[in-house]
Amino acid sequence: MMKNEDSAQAAGTGGILTRAGDTTIAYNRLTGKNPGIVFLHGYKSDKTGGKALAIEAFCAKRGQAFVRFDASGHGESEGTFEDGTISQWANDAVSVLDSLTEGPQILVGSSMGGWVMLLAALARRQRVVGLLGLAAAPDFTEDLMFNGFSLEQKQRLLREGRVLIEDHYGNPPYPVTRRLIDDGRQNLLLQGPINLFCPVRLIHGQKDDDVPWHTALRLQDHLASDDVEVTLVKSSGHRLSEPADIARMLDTLESLLKTVEGGAEAS
User: Fold this and answer.
1) Among 4, 70, 117, 146, which residue's beta carbon has the most beta carbons within 10 A?
2) Are residues 125 and 171 in the same domain?
3) What tens digit of pLDDT does each residue of 15-72 get?
4) Contact 77/35 with Cβ under 8 angstroms?
5) 193 within a domain of the structure (yes/no)
6) 203 - beta bridge partners?
């Protein structure tokens, strides 16, 4: 469903985060001032996508600290994609926050990364001071995967523990496991209040064929924060990677940084 972005040449200082008894996480990091920014990629994507690199260049120019990383089973990180779960990917994000960043952070989450950023923010409320969701896809394993399965697919998932899904971008079919679906149900957010109070910005294309644009409005309604702004873009699709999309993303991030920095000075 959620398509990889075209990879681009990686930049920044690369490294490997080693966690005791767990998979290693590949990352790129820029040192700089706070609040730092952490980019969380989408499902079947990685840290070398155009949005991640555009934010890295933005942070380098601004002198802002920045981290982008591959979730386990993606890109250069260890692990098998098929074995991944939302809990695992959220734990990856928390490990990156704890080990590779200091002080206040803004999380930028693309697609699945938008769900992961919310879970990470809930786990580290005192550290996360702002959120930017790009076609954010909370609850997608239930709302967009399982609820869209045919009866035969649901039966196969229960019987065999996995089902192959056709990729409409022309890539080979990919597996969805019962473990992913069951774990996703333990992390659903759009069924009650999301107790985050930091500024949140959401950008969503109305031609998004992967994640319906009204997901952004549902998310806005469930967030406890009063400072939530949704930008709907009539002409944009899921990837939000066209030049105009990148410019809009960076403008929004610049504005969010100013809001966060202004709030810090006031306090």
Assistant:
1) 117
2) no
3) 999 987 778 999 999 999 999 999 999 999 999 999 999 999 999 999 999 999 999 9
4) no
5) no
6) 134, 231
Number of domains comprising the chain:
2
Instruction: Give the span between the Cα atoms of 232 and 217, in whole angstroms.
Output: 9
* Model pTM score: 0.94
Phi and psi angles of residue 104, each rounded to the nearest 5 degrees, phi first: -70, 145
Residue owning tokens 């009650």: 192
Residues 59 and 147 reside in one and the same domain: no
Distances (CA, A) of 133 to 69, 82, 137, 186, 238: 17, 25, 9, 21, 12
CA–CA dist 97, 34 (Å, integer): 13
Active site residues: 111, 208, 238
3-state secondary structure the chain: CCCCCCCCCCCCEEEEECCCCCCCEEEEEECCEEEEEEEECCCCCCCCCHHHHHHHHHHHHHCEEEEEECCCCCCCCCCCHHHCCHHHHHHHHHHHHHHHCCCCEEEEEECHHHHHHHHHHHHCCCCEEEEEEECCCCCHHHHHHHHHCCHHHHHHHHHHCEEEECCCCCCCCEEEEHHHHHHHHCCCCCCCCECCCCCEEEEEECCCCCCCCHHHHHHHHHECCCCEEEEEECCCCCCCCCHHHHHHHHHHHHHHHHHHHHHHHHC
CA distance 104 to 263: 12
- Are 201 and 227 in contact by the 8 Å Cβ rule? The answer is no
CA distance 39 to 53: 10
Same domain flag for 204 and 162: no
